[in-house]
């Protein structure tokens, strides 16, 4: 027994294994490294959440937000949500509507619901205003008031089922109305999705126009930017730096000034037309501004540096020895350039085209100033609904669809580029 106690005491007093201490120290060092990394990344992550994720989330929510009536007239909205849509709503709903309409004068609630109902029918604003004046003129209002007769006496429209159906469509807290309208769709009286009338179809052609303009500008920038970037990458450093200053020069000028300058250059008596007339190439001035041609001129001038810089950064790192080796082995110079040099620039081409295309999709000032009515892009209508009509739902729906289209095109483009690189490798 004494030998056993002595063995236990010896084991207790023996130092811990070096391997255990080393593992604990490594774990603490790893935790400390992770905490430092999180501390360094946290400010940037917070910044992205505040200025990027939250605004996009708010935009996506506004595209389906339909809380105007529920926030101003909660009892009316609740009653209409349970109404079957036949005849007229019950007396309790009508009484709640009359009481909440009188109270909506406070806090700007009447303006919010009038604006929302006007999206359904432009007559609702005047109807609500006239009804409010009529309700304020009614003296005897009590529990026995016949609200059907009272409201119909103020305006016969309240005796029509269609009037209440229009208000019922604004009762749910969410709606797909704006998203459907952005695709030239609507819901029929029985709730089925259908295309709007031919004269009201607008937004699909606007999206098509936006993609065509953005794609055309991207292709022109690629056609002009690739040889320019190749020239900058192959010239001596001194000459290349001087030319790079000229490429970066547009960044030092205001976007509005550059756009206005193109209007001056391209107008009928501008420098371009006068030069063409002087050389005898044309007999009368060409229409180069306030149309699609002017839009392409101005947007290519503004976005070309965003194509050149990614291409230049990639081309500068490509060794010219590869191309010389292909020529020395018997390849034609153009074949060596196309089969050896160009595949190494795919990453720069991808970065430049995606950057230019995404920026071109959201352009507003340049098409608005240089283009005509048939050249306005989606951003023009987003600005119109935001600044002119205050229809935030429609503006958010158009912006959300543009975001979805951009993401889908980016994913398709990214997959195609990766597939091409995989095939070449």
From TrEMBL:
Gene3D superfamilies: MetI-like. It is found in: Cell membrane. The keyword Cell membrane applies. Belongs to the binding-protein-dependent transport system permease family. CysTW subfamily. Residues 207-413 form the ABC transmembrane type-1 domain. The keyword Membrane applies. This is ABC transporter permease. It comes from the Bacteria. Keywords: Cell membrane, Membrane, Transmembrane, Transmembrane helix, Transport. Its main location: membrane. The chain crosses the membrane at residues 37-61, 211-233, 245-265, 293-314, 349-372, 392-413. Residues 1-13 have a biased composition (Polar residues). Residues 1-21 are annotated as: Disordered. It is a multi-pass membrane protein.
């Amino acid at each position: 027994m004494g030998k056993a106690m002595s063995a236990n005491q010896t084991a207790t007093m023996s130092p811990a294994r070096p391997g255990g201490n080393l593992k604990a120290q490594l774990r603490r060092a790893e935790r400390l490294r992770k905490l430092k990394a999180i501390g360094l990344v946290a400010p940037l992550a917070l910044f992205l959440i505040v200025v990027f994720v939250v605004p996009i989330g708010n935009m996506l929510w506004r595209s389906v937000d339909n809380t105007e009536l529920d926030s101003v007239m909660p009892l009316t909205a609740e009653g209409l949500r349970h109404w079957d849509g036949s005849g007229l709503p019950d007396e309790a709903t009508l009484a709640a509507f009359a009481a909440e309409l009188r109270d909506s004068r406070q806090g700007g609630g009447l303006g919010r619901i009038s604006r929302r109902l006007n999206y359904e029918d432009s007559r609702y604003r005047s109807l609500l205003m006239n009804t409010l004046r009529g309700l304020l003129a009614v003296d005897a209002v009590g529990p026995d008031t016949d609200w059907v007769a009272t409201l119909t006496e103020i305006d016969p429209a309240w005796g029509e089922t269609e009037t209440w159906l229009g208000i019922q469509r604004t009762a749910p807290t969410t709606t797909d109305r704006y998203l459907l309208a952005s695709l030239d769709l609507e819901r029929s009286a029985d709730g089925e999705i259908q295309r709007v009338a031919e004269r009201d179809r607008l937004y699909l052609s606007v999206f098509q126009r936006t993609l065509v303009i953005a794609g055309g500008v991207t292709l022109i920038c690629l056609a002009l930017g690739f040889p320019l970037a190749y020239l900058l990458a192959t010239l001596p450093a001194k000459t290349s730096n001087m030319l790079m200053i000229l490429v970066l020069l547009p960044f030092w000028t205001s976007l509005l000034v550059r756009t206005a300058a193109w209007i001056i250059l391209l107008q009928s008596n501008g420098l371009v037309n006068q030069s063409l007339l002087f050389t005898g190439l044309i007999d009368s001035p060409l229409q180069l501004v306030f149309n699609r041609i002017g839009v392409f001129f101005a947007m290519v001038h503004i976005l070309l540096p965003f194509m050149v810089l990614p291409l230049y950064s990639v081309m500068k790192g490509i060794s010219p020895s590869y191309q010389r080796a292909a020529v020395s082995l018997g390849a034609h110079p153009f074949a060596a350039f196309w089969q050896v040099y160009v595949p190494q620039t795919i990453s720069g081409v991808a970065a430049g085209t995606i950057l230019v295309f995404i920026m071109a999709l959201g352009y507003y000032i340049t098409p608005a100033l240089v283009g005509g009515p048939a050249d306005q892009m989606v951003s023009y209508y987003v600005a119109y609904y935001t600044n002119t009509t205050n229809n935030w739902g429609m503006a958010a729906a158009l912006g959300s669809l543009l975001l979805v289209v951009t993401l889908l095109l980016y994913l398709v483009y990214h997959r195609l580029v990766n597939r091409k690189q995989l095939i070449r490798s």
